[in-house]
Design a protein that fits this description.
Blueprint: E1 12-15, E2 25-30, E3 33-34, E4 38-41, E5 44-46, H1 48-60, E6 63-68, H2 74-80, E7 85-86, H3 94-97, E8 100-102, E9 107-116, E10 132-136, H4 141-146, E11 155-159, H5 163-168, E12 174-178, H6 179-188, E13 193-196, E14 202-205, E15 208-210, H7 213-231, H8 234-243
Parallel strand pairs: 2-6, 2-7, 10-11, 10-12
Antiparallel strand pairs: 1-6, 3-4, 4-5, 8-15, 9-12, 9-13, 9-14
Helix pairs in contact: 1-7, 1-8
Length: 251
């Protein structure tokens, strides 16, 4: 079941139980409301991102401490030093690369238009002219839409949550999210939704760190762990668990 984004609340959950208690701690921010990447079910924080970060912690010898908050607050929390990185499908963009030090990508995806089931008027991104389109506040999907040559013909609306519900209810004509999450949402949710066309932009998601001495050192440790997890098949295994396919490889 789709979980609403948890706003203005910080929940700490300790991961990587196999790591010694006195190990250095990596503070990882996530929304806890982005199924199946990070979500809460029966009071337990879980998902693809949680499994990946726990595997990174075990490989790098780091304790993992998760902090959940509103998605739109994650970048501010990273910049202020309240967390060390964000595991919430953060897409690499030129603007973000100028502000943060990124690891290698660990998810390859695409931007996807989603509509109410039966909406034959929108068959893909080219049909968004004159339409109202929802995106999550703070996500890169607003930027991708504004880069379209006909962006001034699209009424883009930012949401903290409930973009799927408002699309299903007809309050907006469509929403844009990553392809993997969109497909999983449609499969798991009772809402009458459907994919509209093919993905219209490649997305590479990675872990951002502050560009200071500590941040760069942590980035290097985590990046080395990701390389090892990719080479031994762990990343692919975690992806198969949650998606039935490997989204961790560009192939």
């Amino acid at each position: 079941m789709l979980r609403s984004m948890i706003a203005a609340v910080v929940t700490l959950v300790l991961g990587s139980a196999a790591v010694a208690q006195d190990a250095p701690t990596l503070r990882v921010g996530m929304s806890g409301g982005y199924f199946p990447f990070t979500f809460v079910r029966q009071g337990v924080l879980q998902g693809f991102e949680v499994d990946v970060m726990n595997a990174v912690g075990e490989r790098a010898g780091l304790g993992i401490e998760f902090a959940t908050m509103s998605f739109s607050g994650l970048i501010g929390a990273l910049e202020s030093g309240r967390i060390d990185t964000i595991a919430n499908q953060i897409t690499i963009t030129p603007e973000r690369e100028a502000r943060f030090a990124f690891t290698q990508p660990y998810v390859y995806d695409g931007a996807q238009v989603v509509v109410r089931e039966g909406n034959a008027g929108i068959g893909g991104v080219e049909d968004l002219r004159g339409r109202t389109v929802a995106v999550n506040l703070g996500s890169n999907f607003e930027e991708l839409l504004r880069e379209l040559p006909y962006a001034d013909e699209i009424d883009i609306r930012t949401y903290e949550s409930n973009i799927a519900q408002d699309t299903a209810l007809g309050r907006v004509d469509a929403f844009v999210m990553d392809r993997v999450s969109s497909a999983q949402l449609i499969q798991e949710s009772p809402l009458p939704l459907a994919l509209a066309g093919a993905p219209f932009s490649e997305i590479r998601n990675a872990l951002p760190f502050r560009s200071d001495k500590r941040g760069m050192a942590l980035r290097d440790e985590v990046d080395a762990a990701l390389t090892a997890l990719r080479e031994d098949g762990t990343l692919a295994e975690i992806s198969q668990k949650w998606f039935g396919t490997d989204i961790t490889s560009p192939d």
